[in-house]
């Protein structure tokens, strides 16, 4: 899928093309090429190099508000099923989601299925999945090799609370790949950063840690600060604070 933006007419066309599958094949293209044309934009916003950053930021902010309002209205129209699913989930889950980061306004999309690099919501909208489980699915959804290995393992058991040989198998492969001798598996990124900070403090005797401004490093007290600073506190783009 490719998007073309023509500044003079502010036209956006989305063209669907043939996409690859797992082993060099191709997914069938739609029966006809679909093009979506928007002519609501009156032109591209330009900023003079002599204009003050405050004035430019203000103008960009107003334009951004207009674009955001329009896109939210379009999003709400196309994801009515996700809105209903979220309203149902809110009766039994805080914010209607299993993890707080998944909540956003006006409502999150609710996924129905996924395959390779694509996923579909309950309204049958198709998306490219750029998250991929935060990297855990770097081989894609329902990768046949991964699925076959999971099926084989399920025949031997579901969950062990004692060691098994697979622990060493995976650690050895990771060691060969990354050149690190020792590995500790955790259930989440939160546990990983929590353990890393604990080990670093114990090894160095220091208390302070470096925290990336506006970054998320886990759901524990040491790093759950300044994850989403206000825009006005961040400073201008050319000189952030």
Task: Give a description of the structure.
- This protein is α+β, with helices and mostly antiparallel strands.
- It has a domain at 159-207.
- It contains 6 helices and 7 strands, in the order ββββααβββαααα.
- It has helices at residues 53-78, 80-89, 144-154, 165-178, 189-204, 231-234, and strands at residues 2-6, 11-15, 19-20, 26-27, 111-115, 118-121, 126-128.
- The strands form 3 sheets. A 3-stranded antiparallel β-sheet has the order 5-6-7, with no helix packed on it. Strands 1-2 form a two-stranded antiparallel sheet.
- Strand 5 and strand 6 form a beta hairpin.
- The longest helix has 26 residues, at 53-78.
- It starts with a strand and ends in a 7-residue tail after the last helix.
- Mean pLDDT is 81; it is low at 1-18 and 23-50.
